[in-house]
Amino acid sequence: MPRVKVKRASTTIDMTAMCDVSFLLLTFFILTATAVQPEPLQVDTPASVTQVKVPDENLGLITVGDGGKVFFSVKGRDVRGRMLELMSEKYAIPFTAEEKNKFTIMETFGVPMGNLKEVINMDANDRVRPGLQPGIPADTTKELSNQLFHWIYSARVATKELKNEEMRLSIKGDAEEKYPAIKQVIDILQSQKVNKFSLITALRSSDF
């Protein structure tokens, strides 16, 4: 009996629909992604096993490194704008509308109030040049010389006014930073009765 030949079906697959879906997903991720802002102070955080996600909004981040330099970062352009207005009133330093708008783009800064205008009017790439910003003055008193105290307080007030929520605060310190510099920041938070805050760390390599 002759062998019956089975007709082979075509193995060609139309990938047009898959390509359309891929491009749609790619477009979605590009349009919804948030660009990472360069930081003027790079720190190498210590390792730990904690895996608690830092919130994306209503957050104030205090960065300490490079021999005790302190930088402050606030989420939300509207909060940053209102915070600057409060600091402008407190230190009697006026800012133009253009300067206020530029400041709202600066997510992280570390400069005394007297030099803030100069940094605001710099090119964005120049602002994050290592060593340019000397850090925010953080004396042990509550007077105007302790500018970090008033930046934190103004940020908390601005968050409460605009979001009707309490600002969450976090500290990110360099792994090589001396303890007194971190303790100084903690003392400033406690002087405002802020006893709940987070310490930013990196996940240990053995835990991945």
What does this structure look like?
The chain is α/β, with parallel strands linked by helices. 40% of the residues lie in helices and 13% in strands. The protein is built from seven helices and seven strands, in the order H-E-E-E-H-H-E-H-H-H-E-H-E-E. The strands form two sheets. Strands 4-3-2-5-6 form a five-stranded mixed β-sheet. A hairpin with a 3-residue loop joins strand 2 (59-65) and strand 3. It starts with 15 loop residues before the first helix and ends in a 5-residue tail after the last strand. The relative contact order is 0.19.
Please state the average pLDDT score: 83
Bin the strand percentage: 5-15%
Biggest sheet strand order reads 4-3-2-5-6
Helical stretch count?
A: 7
Short description:
This protein is of the alpha/beta class and 208 residues long.
What distinguishing features does this structure have?
208 residues, alpha/beta, 7 strands, two-stranded parallel ribbon, 5-stranded mixed sheet, elongated, 13% strand, 7 helices
